[in-house]
Amino acid sequence: MAKYFDVHPANPQPRTIGTVVDSLRSGALVAYPTDSCYALGCQLGNRDAIDRIRSIRNLDDRHHFTLVCHDFAQLAQFVRVDNDVFRAVKAATPGSYTFILPATKEVPRQLLHPKKKTVGVRIPDHVVTQALVSELGEPLLSSTLLLPDEEEPLTQGWEIKERLDHEVDAVIDSGDCGTEPTTVIDFSGDEPEIVRRGAGDTSRFE
């Protein structure tokens, strides 16, 4: 049965954030809010939780997982960014964007796209997410909480608790965070490619 945490959206309680992070370090899979809908998150090297995310969402090995980072310095440890890409990503963060970039050796192999050796990264503009990642001290491995055969992600903490009570270990509820997932921009080729149009404005990449 999943633990349920009611977290203030503007002033997240440090003790509660610490409890959730302790759970993550102990192998937990957590449903948590972001600036563009809810997501599933776990520690980077947690193979069991990664398999559980794949099972919940019915994902194949071509799915791009996302590393949710606290800031640009942390992001740059896990992906290779040239000067042009640096400027474009820096200007759009924090915000509702996921960027697909070539991964560094810091990223576990099972998270990489099997052919492109890329991974998604993002810096969210959400107080609770930032508090989690800051306390964790490393990126949170993440995937949008979009269930198979459903068009929109789940948006309410109580509903997630009800639907996934035996599939996740904890649910963080800090209020409604919308239904629109991130805009996904692939920077792994010669030109930026808009993979998914979502909450982030795409005009700067077109």
UniProtKB/TrEMBL annotation:
Q: Which InterPro entries match?
A: DHBP_synth_RibB-like_a/b_dom, Sua5-like_dom, SUA5_domain
User: Among its keywords, does the record have Nucleotidyltransferase?
Assistant: yes
Enzyme Commission identifier(s): 2.7.7.87
Q: Which UniProt keywords apply?
A: Nucleotidyltransferase, Transferase
Question: Highest taxon of the source?
Answer: Bacteria
Q: Where is the YrdC-like domain?
A: 14-200
GO MF, one term, reads:
L-threonylcarbamoyladenylate synthase
Q: Which SUPFAM superfamilies match?
A: YrdC/RibB (SSF55821)
One short Pfam name that applies is Sua5_yciO_yrdC
Q: Which protein are we looking at?
A: L-threonylcarbamoyladenylate synthase
Query: What lineage does UniProt assign to this protein's organism?
Result: Bacteria, Bacillati, Actinomycetota, Actinomycetes, Kitasatosporales
